[in-house]
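Lecture 7 notes: from sequence to structure.
We start with the chain below.
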Amino acid sequence: MDRNTFTGLFLILVILVGSTFLLKPSSEDVKKEQLLQDSLAKSKNITIITNKDTTLAITNNSSSPSEKNLTDTANKNTAIITNEEFTVLENKNLKVSISNKGGKIASVEVKGETTYKGNPLILFTPESTNFGFEYKGTNAVANTTNNFFNKLEASNGKVVMQLANADSSNVKYTYTLAPDSHQVGFKAEVKGFQNIITDNSLILNWNTKLLQQEKDITNERMGSTTYYQKEDGTVDYLSESKDEDLLLNEGKTKWVSFKEHFFSAVLIPKESFSKADIKITTLADSSAIKAYGAKLSLPYKNQDVNSYEMNFYFGSNKFSQLKDQGHDLEQMVKMGWGPLKWINRFLVLPIFNFFESLNLGYGLIILLLTIILKSVLFPFTYKSYLSMAKMRVLKPEMDEIKKKVGEGNQALVQQEYLKLYKQAGVNPLGGCLPLVFQMPFILAFFYFFPNLFELRHESFLWMKDLSTYDELIKFAPIPLLGWNHISLMCLLMTVSTLVYTYFNNQVSGAQGQMKYIGYITPLIFFGVLNSYPAGLNYYYLCANVLTFSQQYFIRKFVDDDKIHAQIQVNKKKPESEKKKGGWQKKMEDMMRQQQQNNQQKKK
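Predicted structure tokens for the same chain:
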């Protein structure tokens, strides 16, 4: 070997050895490559199977089980599954993800709806949801929630999951989703458990956390709770303002609902639950609205196969949509109590739906509702104005009576006032008449607009969403009050109420405490309504403006001098010609009785 050949081979060897050390990946590069490979190993492999209007997607997501199986026979499965898989049933309304871990509905997306941030509307997620059978076995209480199910079928809008045990016992879930439905069919079959379940009791355990969907999480929590229907058809609910746990063991339960403000998840069995233990917990430091729980007792028989058919409803709390589902689900929409409920349901809602069918904007619909209400109440408003005008004309004579009798003898002062009212033909309560008729509608609308799904994400003028508050100014929360904004619509409503109060005091001649109470009340309402929906404050603003306009119009046709002249004519009429109202008679009797009691005390 000559020198040149040796030199060449030596240099090649140096290059090979040097490159081995110089090009060796660092420890960070090794870790990054390992993470990449792990990510690729866990990547989703989606197969889409289309059947007309229903789409079924099968998603495999590799992961290691994090919890121990609770079923005492689960470890004897002939096929042990360690990877969580998701199968997605989808139609034009819903996207339902079904996990093989527990065989549960792991998440639901309501299609066509978005959160206040514009994101897809997901009711709940897999990590916060548990669903499965709970029973007392030979050794301990067992639960199928964390067991891995085998997927037997996934086609034609249908998914079948089975938990099979070595002793031939099994649990099978069948989910179905029709093309145009908001309901997911659910059939559960329990086979071969007659020697496993020791107390002939089978419980369906359902727990989840519903996520925030609206801008104001505080008001959203106040409208979120668990609803249920009793065997007699009565629909009731747990507290909306505090945590509550309720055991329904008297009679059967026809359905249970996990409701948030504008959306719900409902479980409706074909055969009523024999018992139900339901609870609600507020999650103050969480993006979830509340935690919901239900332990639902099923009518179990000690036989080879027990079968249960149910339906899930996932969707909005729109009154008409809930009513279409049947089972009185529309009663979850809070329309108020007593007569307020009937006003909203059978009067206000049909009128609202009629205007909506004309494709009118919701701001215009609220205005038209207000105009209709004010038109119906106009005759009472006119009588109220006349009554206040008469009281204003009588004010000098009433002051003279008070001065003559003395303020120390209020009973006698009131008695003399009654004589004056009787002579003049004036009813002092006549000014309250419109308020008596209008108050039920004011209170009814207080429930109607905040719970009206149709206003959600609907804009009007500067208001981007009529179902929540608008923001003129936003700032850090004020201690104690908790305010973090000023609503422009609420501010305009308050100003209009103060203006209305000012002119109303001019008409009625209010003085003293009554005068100042009229100014304080709107300020109190501002504090309350500042975080209420802009649609509600807009209605109150329209009502104030229309009321003020009506009174301005009436004032043009009412002459105080003519009223005074008519009062003087009434005074000259014989007592036999004067009509005595029932109110006046009762007041006279009460005054007479009070005077007699005072005389007896002096004796």
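Points to note: The first helix runs from residue 3 to 22. The first strand starts at residue 45 and ends at 51.
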